[in-house]
Every structure is written in structure tokens, then in C-alpha cells.
Design a protein that fits this description.
mainly alpha; 56% helix; elongated
Length: 125
């Protein structure tokens, strides 16, 4: 069973909301436009919240640019703070290793090239 989703124009939605504002009941409007009363309630909520800017249509549901900019600025400031803390931690860790762990080359010869003082193992026959 394939049920196609109905798409209603912005003009129809606004006409229905204006009729509701004029005093018509949900039932009257639902019968007149052949809509579900529950759908009308959902539209009414959006109409009350956004007024004339309600029902923007497909692809225009994003927040206003000012809200997007403020959200992005806040996100970037949090990221800057996080990176600053990471840099401070790494600087302290580097300083700790410089102070407490001497380099591997002390006398000018590579320490890793010294031969072990342990006797060599012989292969078993």
C-alpha cells in the first residue's frame, strides 16, 4: 500500500488560518478544504508561533540567518577555548619531558648502539 504524502500550498494554509482567525471552527474549515482537523491544529501552532513568516515552503525551513550566525559564533568560540586548553596542556607536557627526561644521546655516542652485556644464546641442536 503506497500512500502519497499530500503537499498543500502556502496560500491554502494561510487562507485556512485566516478563516480560523475570523471565527470559523476547525470542523468547518476541515470540511471546506477537505483537511484533517489534526493537520489544522498543527498548522495553527505554526501560524501562532511565526505569524506571516509561517509555512516557508520546501527548502526554506532553516533558522533566520541571525540565529545561524550567533550559533556558529558560539560554536567557534567553544572550539577556540578547547584548542587553547589542548595547546596549554601540550606545552606543559613538553616542558615536563625536557626537564625530567634527559635526551638519549648523552656522551655523543648513540645509546641504542651499545652491545648488550648479556651472553649470547646458543642455538639448541
Amino acid at each position: 500500500m503506497d500512500l502519497a504524502r499530500s503537499v498543500y500550498s502556502r496560500d491554502l494554509k494561510i487562507a485556512a488560518m485566516r478563516a480560523l482567525d475570523a471565527g470559523s471552527t476547525n470542523g468547518e474549515i476541515a470540511r471546506k478544504y477537505q483537511l484533517s482537523p489534526k493537520l489544522l491544529e498543527r498548522w495553527r501552532g505554526e501560524w501562532r508561533a511565526k505569524g506571516e513568516s509561517a509555512f516557508p515552503g520546501i527548502g526554506r525551513r532553516a533558522d533566520p540567518p541571525a540565529l545561524d550566525d550567533a550559533r556558529r559564533i558560539a560554536e567557534l568560540e567553544r572550539k577556540i577555548g578547547q584548542l587553547t586548553m589542548e595547546n596549554d596542556f601540550l606545552k606543559k607536557a613538553l616542558q615536563h619531558f625536557r626537564d625530567h627526561h634527559p635526551p638519549a644521546v648523552v656522551s655523543g655516542a648513540d645509546a641504542c648502539l651499545k652491545k648488550s652485556s648479556k651472553p649470547r644464546r646458543t642455538a639448541k641442536p
